[in-house]
Amino acid sequence: MEIVLGIIVGAVLGLTGAGGSILAVPLLMFGLGWTLPQAAPVALLAVCASATFGTIVAWDVTHVRYRAAALMGAAALFTAPLGFSAAALLPLPILTGVFALVLAYVGARMLRQSIRAPAEAAIVRATVAGDGSQPGGRWIKVSEQGRILWNETTVAMVAAIGGLTGFVAGMLGVGGGFVIVPALRYTSGLSMHSAVATSLLAVALIAAVAAAGAAVQGTPIPWAAAAPFVLGALAGMFAGRKLAPRIAGPRLQQGFAVVMLVVAIGLIVKAIRM
Asked: Cα–Cα distance between 126 and 196 in angstroms, integer?
């Protein structure tokens, strides 16, 4: 069962981009009957492995902003423990309800984006010629070649994005691509391709930081279940990337968004029954 669930997570991540990892935790909760704190560290391991693999095989190096991803990962070192602490303080029904609300928000946002901007919903199909970046940006300036122009404001903004994502990862056990991509798009002139590619690497780093933090804090990791789940995620990521050029696009994103909304409702019901 763990392998099957991992394959589903990896395939969704490969087909939809960095935000697909958010389904890892609810799949473990419903598939294996785990609570959110039990599922979180295992989900983070799978997300880290599959996002790393996806970054290596799926994106041209010119699209990945490595320094930005590294800075986000570094910022997460300080905020992921705060997320763990917040999760420990919240009663389990409330924590589950918070995750359900986040999932519903991500699903609704993806559904709206796939309708309003279908070209961006199909971003995992292939890399287009050129980066498509827009010079300028609200706070994070980008050159005409699509590279980030670093200054104090840029450092602070990228670190803030990584810090927020690290907190969410620590509290909910998710990679945080649904935070990074829209944040980069809103604050900078990065193209959608570059934002997704950079997010995937940042997700890998942040998930690694959060999983390591969970282990340091003494959270038990059931390796007998985690290992096949991670292997399945890698296999699913590979299959998802192979299928992406054929089926990825607005319809797929809309279907995935609907699934997230249904799962969110299921988590709310689960939280009420706790």
From this structure: 12
- Choice between 237 and 209, residue whose per-residue pLDDT is larger: 209
Q: Report the candidate in 174, 187, 202 with the shortest Cα–Cα distance to residue 73.
A: 202
Which residue type sits at 229? Answer: F
Helix 177-187 and helix 92-116: axis angle, to 10°? 50
Q: Which residue reads 């290992």 in tokens?
A: 227
Structure tokens at 171: 């509290």
Cα 66 to Cα 60: distance, rounded to the nearest angstrom: 12
pLDDT of 52 over the 90 cut = no
Q: How many CB atoms are located within 10 Å of the residue 148 CB? A: 22
Q: Over the stretch 94-153, which tens digit does the pLDDT of each residue have?
A: 999 999 998 898 888 878 877 776 655 555 544 433 444 454 557 888 887 778 889 999
What residues form DSSP beta bridges with 34? Answer: none
Structure tokens at 226: 């985690």
Distance CA 14, CA 235 (A): 10
Task: Indicate whether this model's pTM tops 0.90.
Answer: no
Which are the contacts of 137, defined by CB distance < 8 A and separation ≥ 6? 187, 188, 189, 190
- Whether 271 has a pLDDT exceeding 90, the answer reads no
- Looking at the chain, list the stretches that DSSP marks H as alpha helix, in order from N- to C-terminal side: 2-16, 24-32, 36-58, 66-89, 92-116, 118-121, 152-172, 177-187, 192-216, 223-247, 250-273
Is it the case that residue 254 has pLDDT exceeding 80?
Answer: no
Residue type, 207: A
